[in-house]
Amino acid sequence: MTGKAAVTGEAGEVGEVGEADTAGKVALVTGANKGIGYETARQLGQRGIRVLVGARDEGRGKQAADALAAGGIDAEPLRLDVTDAAGVAEAAARIERRHGRLDILVNNAGVAGGFTGAPSQATADDLRAVYETNVFGVVTVTRAMLPLLRRAPAGRIVNMSSHIGSLALHADPDSPLAGVNMIAYQSSKTALNALTLAYAKELRGTAVKVNAAHPGVVATDINHRRGHRTPAQGAVIAVRLALLDADGPSGASLAEEGPVPW
Asked: Which of 38, 131, 185, 199 is labelled catalytic?
């Protein structure tokens, strides 16, 4: 399946993003047993991609994969706790044995953490609890899967970020985020943005593209379902970036409506 999707922002259209051929592709989505991750897996699967449903809980991962399969999607559960380096290595070895390569990696697994107080009252442990999944987990998974992505004709890495990680938006007193000060979660997404740029710079000139997806305020467990967008809507930009053709960007920060400032 191929096609073109325009990416627009406040300044107007900034170009068309084409979708690469999806035939025979294999995608891994972390945290895919629910929410945006599940919807990302579903939408990729609807395009004929074999989806590996990464989930920390083996039972929930199987339930999600079975539900996707019931809808005609080629889905395979994969036990994957992004904070467990040995387990991630085992998952990569399994993918290599079964598929020989990986075409798409969506680093979706994330947590908000329990700390909601003033930033000055946060401890290192408060931040570490969030960074283990949102930052260090991405490092662990990306390092393990990159050799498999390099084997693909057109590897794609999508890091599920958030507008809340934008330093520019937080610094703007007129921004909708001006009153938001969730030090652990927002700084973890800022760090994730930095990882995205670092990987994109390293992989410049290769067939692997790395981008940050911003789903918007989606109703998921992470915000007690208080978002105004559905998981299906939130997954759209991740899927679009997962299916970029050779002319698509790398090292970009994009929401469905267009670029998001770093």
From this structure: 185
Round to whole Å and give the CA distance between 119 and 134.
Answer: 18
| 224 — pLDDT class (breaks 50, 70, 90) | low
Q: At what angle do helices 231-242 and 35-45 cross, to 10 degrees?
A: 50
Q: Give the CATH class of 3-8+19-259.
A: alpha beta
What residues does each domain of the chain span?
Answer: 3-8+19-259
CB within 8 A of 17, min separation 6: which ones?
Answer: 4, 5, 6, 7, 240, 241, 244, 245, 248, 249
| DSSP code for 226 | -
pTM of the model: 0.90
Tell which residue, 206, 26, 200, 205, has the closest CA to residue 101: 26
131 counts as catalytic = no
Residue 251 tokens, joined: 């090292």
Handedness of CA 181, 185, 189, 190 (dihedral sign): positive
For residues 130 and 123, what is the distance between their CA atoms, to the nearest angstrom?
A: 12
